[in-house]
Design goal:
Layout: E1 12-19, E2 23-31, E3 40-48, H1 57-77, E4 85-90, E5 96-111, H2 114-136, E6 143-155, E7 158-160, E8 167-181, H3 182-193, E9 200-205, H4 206-217, E10 224-228, E11 234-240, E12 243-250, H5 254-265, H6 269-280, H7 286-311, E13 323-327, H8 333-341, H9 343-349, E14 356-359, E15 370-371, H10 378-391
Parallel strand pairs: 1-4, 3-15, 4-9, 10-13, 13-14
Antiparallel strand pairs: 1-2, 2-3, 5-8, 6-7, 6-8, 10-11, 11-12
Helix pairs in contact: 1-3, 4-10, 5-6, 5-7
């Protein structure tokens, strides 16, 4: 519900599932007894989602559900204790987000409290739900709200970290509301209930979780882009002066990159992955490398064109920051980072002639999330940090 509705927490064991468009990750996480501790990932597992030649949402959802079930069973087989809660973190295309500013003004001063906040948020959600019903009709698979997070409250024009109980005449609440198809949510719950019986399941989005982790990790800057290119799609989050102003996506991510190589060279995906690895490590012959350069440049231009078309949908008044936080799998992160740093692309992606790209590595978050054994999966670490942030006062 956001920082207005957090409660004190106790030490517990939870399960976190990272449901992406390229893979599904799962972790058993120990949350500390007090707010001064950090979450500990006891065990993590990740499985790729089956890759098909042509994207079809229904088939893709089935493949995701199968992968989720496999990851859940693998975690259960570790016998690390029954989780008290399950937190599922979604990437595109499993959700969409709306950023909203809720306003309220009265002639006389009033005291802002939880009841007022709840009433305003509920009214906003009802309006949003009504908009989708008008757009899609009374469908059984209408998007349902999976997450609502209040990022900031301003009273009388001033940002207030703890607004409850304070008086004002007018207020602004910046929040993000995320929705997912009802059928997708029900299938996820049904799949997890087969392994973790009668366990509460909650949902959030990776864009919001990355926003929370980056906000706490980096003192500056307060304006930046969040990019996740780890699957079939690229997720984009735009943060301005500490507020997540927009969350959107476009259908060109890591898997698209390898599909393009397969198509251009008429080879299988595993061959494309091995070829790209050799290219990245500078282990190709000079003749073959020269042949590959125009192919990679063509794919690079296609991704940048898709990115540009995506950001052109934003309001003209929204200025893009020049700092980019990038999450990507190890095999592709350097390539995307270099693409974003090229001078001929910088003017497209940011408001200035120079950009800074920071890749989010798991090791960087070890002071905020410990890992008992296994790899430092940055996605699961970021999500464990965010779960704790949402539960801490």
């Amino acid at each position: 519900m956001g920082f207005l509705f957090t409660t004190e927490k106790r030490e517990s064991i939870i399960a976190v599932f990272d449901i992406g468009s390229g893979s599904v990750g799962g972790a058993i996480v120990k949350l500390p007894l007090n707010n001064n501790g950090i979450p500990i990932i006891i065990k993590s597992i990740r499985e790729d989602i089956k890759s098909r030649g042509v994207f079809n949402f229904e088939s893709f959802t089935k493949d995701m559900i199968l992968t989720l079930g496999k990851v859940a069973n693998s975690l259960y087989a570790e016998k690390l204790g029954a989780p008290s809660e399950i937190h599922c973190v979604m990437a595109s295309p499993w959700y969409l987000s709306e950023t909203r500013v809720i306003k309220m003004k009265k002639e006389k001063s009033f005291t802002f409290n939880k009841d007022i906040a709840s009433e305003l948020i509920e009214k906003e959600i009802q309006g949003l739900t009504s908009d989708y019903k008008n757009k899609y009709g009374e469908s059984k698979d209408l998007p349902v709200v999976i997450e609502q997070y209040t990022m900031m409250v301003s009273l009388n024009g001033y940002q207030v970290e703890d607004p409850i109980g304070k008086k004002c005449q007018f207020l602004d609440m910046n929040m993000v509301i995320s929705l997912s198809p009802a059928s997708c949510i029900n299938k996820i719950k049904e799949t997890l209930s087969k392994t973790f019986h009668h366990t509460k399941v909650s949902f959030s989005t990776f864009t919001v979780d990355a926003y929370l982790a980056v906000r706490d990790k980096y003192v500056a800057p307060d304006s930046y882009l969040l990019l996740d290119v780890s699957g079939e799609l690229t997720d984009v989050g735009i943060v301005t002066k500490g507020i997540l102003k927009s969350a959107l996506s476009f259908p060109f991510g890591k898997k698209t990159f390898f599909k393009q190589i397969c198509k251009k060279l008429k080879i299988e995906q595993r061959d494309a992955e091995e070829l790209f690895k050799l290219y990245s490590e500078n282990n190709l012959s000079s003749t073959f490398k020269e042949k590959m350069i125009p192919i990679f440049e063509s794919i690079e231009n296609s991704w940048m064109q898709a990115f540009e078309e995506c950001i052109e949908t934003l309001p003209r008044t929204l200025i893009l920051p020049n700092t980019i936080f990038l999450t990507a799998d190890n095999d592709i992160k350097n390539w995307f980072s270099n693409v974003l740093l090229k001078e001929d692309h910088v003017q497209i992606t940011t408001s200035e002639h120079k950009s800074t790209v920071i890749t989010l590595e798991g090791q960087e978050f070890l002071n905020m999330c410990d890992v008992k054994n296994g790899t430092c999966d940055p996605f699961l670490m970021i999500e464990a940090i965010a779960v704790m942030r949402k539960m801490v006062k």
